[in-house]
From TrEMBL:
This is TraB/GumN family protein. It holds the Pfam family TraB_PrgY_gumN. It comes from the Bacteria. It comes from Solemya elarraichensis gill symbiont.
Amino acid sequence: MARSEGLARLMRKEMTHEEYQRVLVARNRRWLPRVETHISSPGKTMIVVGAAHLAGKQSLIAMLKSKGYEVSRIQ
């Protein structure tokens, strides 16, 4: 199991469905247009969010990939 899958599972376990939807999914959807604006601007962009926003099927990463963006993890 990938770390992000484990984190997503943990977040769903620790939050009610409503909390998960409000705190993570809804926030990711609100952020998506802003993220797209930043990454389409000239120059390099670094966007930092909490790890929970990067894990799971409704993560920022999944939303960006579904729109055709290439997303990679840096260490």
